[in-house]
Amino acid sequence: MHPHHRGQYNPYGAAPNHPQHGGGHNQGQPPAIQPVVVVHPPYQGVPQPPHPVQQGLQYFMQPGFPQQPMPQPVAAMQGPQPILFLPHRFFQSSDAQVRLGQGHMPVSAQDGQQFPFPDPPRLFRSRLPTSLRCKELRHAPLSSDCVQTTSVPTAVQGLPGVDRLTQLRCSDALWNNLVEYASETGGLAPPPQLAAHLAAVNTWSLGALASGTGVAERLQLAPGWQQAKAVYGLSGWFSEHMHRPDTVVVNSEPAVQDEVRSQILEPLNLLLQTRCRNRIHDALDPGKHWTLPAGQLANAPDSAFYPTWTRSCHASHPEAGRGRAGFPDFILHTNAAKLSNTAVIETKFFSTFMDSHLQKIYRQDIYNNHTNQFAWNANSLQSKLVRQIWGQLHFFRAQWGFCTNGSMVFAFVNTGQGELTVSPLKSWSDPTVHKALSGLVFASIDDRNIPGNWGISLCDLICPANSRRAVWE
Predict the structure, then answer these.
(1) 289-344 confidence digits (pLDDT tens)
(2) Is residue 166 part of a domain?
(3) I need a surface site. Which of 60, 172, 308, 361 has the fewest CB within 10 A?
(4) Is residue 138, in this structure, part of any structural domain at all?
(5) Is 309 helix (H, G, I), strand (E, B) or coil?
(6) What is d(CA 163, CA 165) in angstroms, rounded to the nearest whole number?
(7) Residue 291 covered by a domain
(8) Total structural domains in the chain?
(9) What pLDDT score does 213 carry?
(10) Per its UniProt entry, which superkingdom is the organism in (predicted)?
(11) Rounded alpha-carbon distances, angstroms, from residue 467 to 141, 168, 338, 393, 422
């Protein structure tokens, strides 16, 4: 299932070189496709879904792959132990008895433990919660002024009519479908042409299909050694997150951005490494004016990784001469190229951009009653926010994203010419936030790499046209 590296395995040293080949849409007829399933590392003590293939990291056991010495099994720890599971159990804890060893997982060169990493009971005063949630944010006594000064950049406001937003829609299906797309055990109904090959469409099944048929390398599953390193990193993030106070005090929009990075983007970046192949060495267009010579990026260490969430900057703007036009707070780069952006994030501060302002996005006054279109020139905060988001998608050539004020969250997607579709508002601490945003990240990348002859548009699959309604209806 997983392409395996036929070289020395070192889970924490320099990663093996994996040449990057082209991806994207194949020409001609699709190859013969055999039904395949995703194989991920097993987790001791937990019943595994019935797969008609061998369980475990079998790509480490292929002929020609150096075998690692495995320790003897260790007796089960006393009492139920919470475990970090990946990918579909990442958001859950378990009552399963933990057993180490059995030769199923590689050995850590750092501490001699094995995957998955049981959390020592002494580190936790009580059992972990049954779901992963963002920590609640509250404003500090000394905080930014409650007067909101959101403004729309001149270049965004001055977009020609053909590039402006005209229809704002809301899809009740969007959020839940993003959750399903990130789930290994769930998924969406496949289109007829793939129904014989996929029981459900999710990022893992599409990656397995690409891996099993040898097409669309950028869509294929990540190699096992890369997954293992990411799991180790996630275990560290998870432990740190669960030890933080249940309530975090913030005093400004930058403070909210800090929490978005630490509570959401750090695990999302690690989850990307469990799913995507590293594109740090993708060739750059020599006709572009890069800040650094392309050769310097080609020599980047394998420990550097794309895709990744990062800050937007002037050099990454496709139209750098447009000043501050359309800069998001965070942007998802699939590689180092300017036009590799697939998703954006806009943040506000709930003390100045309150929940009531976000809720007004879903009301009739967001529209012009005379034209029955989005009120592009309105002066309300909610209208300015929507124009900011639209400008970010337009100038950075992205399609997906989410917005939060640190209290509420909603996802959005450009669903067509002049049309933006948003999800219902969700609480910042809703247990589905990490799941849905994982699905959004995976979908934004996968949608650009699915072979054209597979006949799948993730935008239409995750946000069906018949689910989009005018927000004020």
Answers:
(1) 566 665 666 677 777 899 999 998 777 776 655 555 678 999 999 988 878 899 99
(2) yes
(3) 172
(4) no
(5) strand
(6) 7
(7) yes
(8) 1
(9) 86
(10) Eukaryota
(11) 42, 13, 33, 22, 11
